[in-house]
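Exercise 7. Predict the joint structure of the components listed below.
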Amino acid sequence: MENPQKTKLNIEQIRESLADKKGQEMWRGLGELAGTDEFQQFLNDEFPQIARPLNMKMDRRQFMTLSGASLALAGLSGCRFLPQDRIVPYVKAPENTVPGRALYYASTALFQGYGRGIVVESHEGRPTKIEGNPAHPASLGSTDAFAQAEILSLYDADRSKTVFGKGQPNSYDAFLTAARESLLKQKDKQGSGIRILTETVTSPTLYAQIQAFLALHPQAKWVQYDPISQDNVRQASQLAFGKVVNTVYQFDKAERILSIDSDFFANHPGSVRFSRDFSDKRRVTEERKEMNRLYAVECTPKLTGGMADHRFPARVSDMEAIVAAIAAKVGVTGITPPPVTATWIDAVVEDLNENRGRSLVIAGEHLSPATQALVHAINAQLGAVGSTLVYTNPVEALPSQQTEDMRSLIADIQGQKVDVLLILGANPAYHAPVDLQFGANLVTVPFTVHLGLHRDETGFIADWHIPEAHFLEAWGDARAYDGTVSIVQPLINPIYEVSKSALELLAALQGKPATSEEAVRGYWKARLNITNFDKAWRKILNEGVVPATAEAPIVVALKPDFAPGISLQAIPSGNPQNIEVVFAPDPTVWDGRYANNGWLQELPKPMTKLTWDNAVLMSVATAKQLGVSNEDIVEVELGNRKVKGPVWLAFGHADNSITLHLGYGRIKGGAIAAGGKGIMPVNGWDGAGFDANQLRSTGALWVSTGVSIKKAGGTWKIATTENHNIIEETNGKDVDSTFKRDIIRLTTLEEYKQGKFGEPEEGPKPAGHGEGHHEKEEPVSMYPKVVGGREELGSIGGVDYDYKEYNAWAMSIDLNTCTGCNTCTIACQAENNIAIVGKDLVMRGREMHWIRIDRYYKGSLSNPQTYFQPVGCQMCELAPCEPVCPVAATVHSHDGLNQMVYNRCIGTKYCSNNCP
Amino acid sequence: MSAREKLNDDLILGKHTFRTINDKVNNVVLNQNSHTIPWAVCFMVGFMLLQLMGLVILWLLYRGIGIWGVNNPSMWGWDIINFVWWIGIGHAGTLISAILLLLKQSWRNSINRFAEAMTLFAVACAGLFPLLHTGRPYMAYWMFPYPNVLAMTPNFRSPLLWDVFAISTYATVSAVFWFLGLIPDLASLRDKSKNPIFKGIFGALAMGWRGAASHWQRYESAYIMLAGLSTPLVLSVHSIVSFDFAVANLPGWHVTLFPPYFVAGAVYAGFAMVLTLAIPVRAWYNMKDFITMRHIDWMAKVMLATGLIVFYGYLCEGFFSWYSGNVFEIDMMRFRMFGPYGWAYWMLILCNGIVPQFLWFPKIRTNLVALFIICQFVSLGMWLERFVIITVSLTRDFLPSSWGYFTPTIYDIGMFVGTVGQFTFLMFGFLRVLPMINNFEMKELLYRMTGRGHHHGHTAHALEPDLAGHTAGDGEEH
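Solution:
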């Protein structure tokens, strides 16, 4: 009791527990106080029962007195904890804050290091919903599923909450002390033992910070590494132009698009913008009765192929030969036409040529540099440069060869040249190529620091782990795919108070602790260097973008020897003995960074409709040849490495090729990422899915042949939201069985212009089932005809609907432009707080999404046409769900909506049964 | 039980007097030694399953209906299947008590008491499901039109609300009807009982019945009025239950044929259950004199007739889904027959369509073992009928993307087995504490058959007041 050491310890513990918990005190800013003398004094004042009575000798009377008093005063204990001016909300009301009314702030979400403008809705200081920023060129008011789901990542309960040092909870101050000590030792060596590892950096402020840090330690090195790297893009640019350039595609100018295994709808820093531009050209309106045309050559079925007018499956390994053939046909000089085996190439090339200046070829970022260089040449030949695409200076702060840099980092570690390694926001122990043995090498570095949202695979083995602030919690900036700078504006103080952004951490390590706001604001004040900066800054924050920061187009000349070593062999026909394996980022959990986001885990992947798992995707023919089918576990062996995973048939996948999606098989990083029952236990842990990184090496980051696949025995149940029976139907003679139901109406543009809308010639003649709105013969119905307005409706259900006085709501979905991107599903989940249910219950058909995206196939299993159809509540005028509810919890609103009164619902489920 | 018994025209066999009838019926209740091992086994098994049901319900209330196999799109599963099945089983009792009474069918007399009891217990089992299948059973009272500050009435357009009224009315009328019929017999038990506690209980329940002519006069008019009330209920309850489906717009549910076909199915299932109980019980308690082969033969014939109606319904469903030309209806029928639940459909046809055809043969109708087995097929078939209707339609509706598959969980099975236990428990408990055969009506029947007093023959009408004195339960004839 009298040991002062012990007293001090108690306070330490309390401080730590205070640092961990936030709740209502979010605005208080305790972290700045933590560790200071004032804080100690504050604690002593606050908890005198700890500070003083512990040193007192107490007799029975005193004990009784004190315990009686503490009992009586127990209710007062909360009275003075918070500073007086903040405990009563809005005594001094924050500007513009009206309880119950949302405020919106412009900010920026990061994707592959690039910025996407967002507008965040905030209720009483809590961000609740993310939308796109109309002023931002990469958004134009739209978002993708990742940005929508970030709001859940912000509130993720598994986020790292505490600083860890050597595996034990510790304080940020202790870390700073240790780090400064380690950095001080580097002074003599000019920091030659220091390495900083980040993901791709586009942020000007962070770049300036890193440069400042490197100026302090001239010999230190900075390595960028992203598992979904754009190394090949940069190398292709080097090959074609002799320097790294950034390609800005302008789909709003392209009438003919040829995609070479590109996933530009989902997998590109500009994909939200691209989707919008593409849709604008796709949409048929009164004024514009033309559509763009999309050709897609692809291996793994992707959104691109789903949207394509013509889709040609091909192995990734064969892309080079195909592109060479196209280049030769288009007339790229220096390429002699190879023997062509694909007849479609002539037709595509003819179409592209006819639309010179309005056509565009886009290559997947994973394709070999030579292939992508060829695509640059084709675009130049087609007159695309300057019209459907422009080249600019690179947007990344420092374009680098990330895989090479990573390899030399590992070599340095092995050469014991690295003493201090700062890992800012990456998880290389999970996602670095397996041959680098990053984790094993990391532990040999004397001082390692990991800054991350989760204490993930890297965070567990690093000496120090610092919780990273979410981008909605700290200031920053980022550049978009075209160079436009937007500000990352936080909406909330860090929920876990010790969280730091990379900017703050680097500033602290340079001995000039600054808040992230000071850093960003300071940088832009210096850079913009204008007189009325405050006003300009407010405008920038309001709009979210820094004006006139987009990169200007530059003119680059194609090098004459741009394509050395392009092998002009014939397009290989499939060789069953030589199956290739393709690695791709997962459509929902990406490289694993969203693995702990339940919304994204349960989001059906656009083409396969898998949830909670990745799979070994292959075509039907390949599966037949291997003698496997859906859910059979196979062992994929590459080199001497093996992974096990379940097979899933991907219709339209290129034959003799398999795709493994990255991002699964996590062993640390949260209960959702790593708490599930995974297929391939690693070190006693079993995350959801399997870790395809285990096969991915620096030599073959994206594709490798020579993979061997054999049945491993057993099956692995996969939670898919797709109905098996549709496949069985299509498998049989009745390929278009579902089309008889008149679900998807198809017509050609020519027919559409003539007024045909794809009515089935002999389709269903529904008798009062609420289907078939365009029937020529009205089915006989006992219900009055509904056109709208009081007269027609009469008094159905005893209610008169009069839409003359109110708005009648309507929403239409242009199925012609729906890319199946899933954003609406997550947006709905975010807006309506829809729960996730987990893999087991998805398998039992209990997923709760209010909008699902139905995907229908037409045609052969080897290369079907894909149609997406988002299905939400149709808000039927005479809704079958309404009359059947016994307690009138399902009602029609005065403005024509079907409303569910949750509080009134007793759960008979009849509404759902009767929903057509 | 012997496998085959002689068919005869008599409704009472053996040389019986009023006294022997009285003793035999009352003895089951008053002499506790009359219950043998079969009773104990059935009662105990029923009791154990009832406890199981209690556990399942506790877990259900704690965890919610997620423990069942229901999913989206199959929002209803075994809960509603069991509900409709039990409601159907109850129907035979009311039919026997009410319609056969009005039609003056004397053969109802020996079986009406436990058929009515069966009705009540089946409704008790059925009633659990609609209550428990709601997500918030503690809010189920919202389905009643009670005055409240929200000024909310339930939605009278919903078939589920019609269900609430249909079933609560049915349960109430059945219970009153049953109890009214028991009063003279309770008085008889009061008078015969030696044990003062029993005497007190039966006395209280007999409500002062003295067998006075005025009692009999009021009794008969009340009874016939209740029979009149019950008669439309026989038709209405299951019609309304069928509206749960027929009013909905799902292919396979939206069928105008449903009301008559459901009612026929209910009578069919009900008689199968009466026979299932009657055949062993009459052997165990040696009631063969009262529940004769004639009764059994007629019940089998009713089963055959209603079974044919039901089978006709199946054929109509098939025909009309084809004749509609509606792709959803045609596909639904195709999935019923050849889809993932095809086995259930063909089992249904076997149980309800093929097996009952054996009842055309008198030899089989009087072969108790065969008849008992056929009854089990019918019960299973009627359960499968509801399974096919509910599950196939829900999992194969308009949009193929919202198709699914329903798999029950152990809790679904536990609930079903539990209600079977509850039913058995209540039924065998009833056999022990109340007269299973309508004592006074049997004596009345004997009176009419033997022609003592007045010669009325088989068609003596029940309202004749002077019959009452002979059957007043006090054994005045000795």
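Discussion. Chain B touches chain A through 56 residues (CB under 8 Å).
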